[in-house]
Fold O-fucosyltransferase family protein.
Amino acid sequence: MVAVGGGGRRRRAWRWAMRAAASAVLWTAVVQLASIAGLFRPRVLADCGGGGGGGGGGVGGVAGLAALAGEDTGAARLSPPALVPKRIYKSNGYLRVTCNGGLNQMRAGICDMVTIARHLNLTLVVPELDKRSFWADPSDFGDIFDVDHFINSLRDELMIVKELPLKLQLRTKKRLYSMPPVSWSNETYYLKRILPLARKHKVIHFDKSDARLANNGLPIQLQMLRCRVNFQALRFTPQIEALGRKLISTLQRSGQFVVLHLRYEMDMLSFSGCTHGCSSKETEELTRMRYAYPWWKEKEIDSVVKRLQGLCPLTPEEITLVLKALGFTKDTLIYIASGEIYGGERRLAVLKAAYPKLVRKEKILSPDELRPFQNHSTQMAALDYMVSLASDIFIPSYDGNMARVVEGHRRYMGFRKTIVLDRKKLVELLDLFQGGALSWDEFSDAVKESHKSRMGQPTERKIIPGQPKEEDYFYANPQECLGSNGGLRDIS
């Protein structure tokens, strides 16, 4: 009897031990599954964390506002999410693209080219970047953007390859069908005119990418894809992102900061013909440059008339008065996002005197940190782009590509405050004030009143039938991709 009782106890002990072991295994599995669920949540949701001060919505291509600020975003950066399923389709040929312009003009062009390739079921070759412009930047796509992320994040929409197959490389060296698509075209143009050419030639090359898709009237799926490329697929390289986060973190440690995109560089003044405030010698130099570049079509320009029409960037002296009128105080931290200011420190003297806490990336980062990016204007512009997105307020002095694309990205991030200056009205007010017709208080009140509705609030994009170039720019206000309350629409 004793022997039997001992065996029963041993069997009960063995069963208890097995149950305990099974419970431990099961609990470990539950913990691991919970961890994985947190780690691999959908990217659109992961990037949509709400933020104060008008922030919210998704940051998309810059991987979250916390990442922009240099904060640790957790395990999501340690392990990449699983690849989205590849879309299987019969390709109608290959699309090669040479983008033209500066960083943000090329950025918008890339978004359009992806959308066109998807619409026509083409295979896209990673775009080539402009190396012949005024800036003569030798950067390739992979020097600015994360190529693998670009390809993999869009694999459920279209095939993107780093280069043509060898057979087609040899063929296109002898003969390549190259053309600029018609500007501001809709999807019907590409289906009826471009698709037959792609099928016939197997490889088609677009030698321009700027403004090749219409602002309005496109199917919602195409508009949403443009946003997905812009805000999610176009992520800067790890080197650019790391340095950009350091810049942002340094600025935010000092409190709130304003980014002033001061578009007062030599190329802009020469191209626009705007010489207000320049000496006669400087005016001659800018005019010579304009004639030296054959693709700058407009040669004879009346600077006075153009300024009165609001078509000139504000000068550093003018922007100083505007900032004061808007209520920015002397202790405001202002980051200047721009290339080299024409006239150098002399032209910045008035702005510096009014705002002593005026900084640029060259003052925040060491020469060693900036050295890999110097002589690469697009990479330097990428750093300014990141800082502009993260700023508390963004103010462009001109409505060029950088200003418009950043404005649209900040709308996407939850309609973060962007002061879009009414230059035509401001020039009128500035001349009245400086001529003695307005007191300072009258001038300041008028400036504030004229900009109440120009702070980046939700607004309908302007449509002008038959005049697409005069419409509001899609990338400045991608309203199809924005929720009614400033939140992010699902563009995945």
In short: Residues 2-39 form the longest helix (38 residues). The first strand starts at residue 94 and ends at 97.
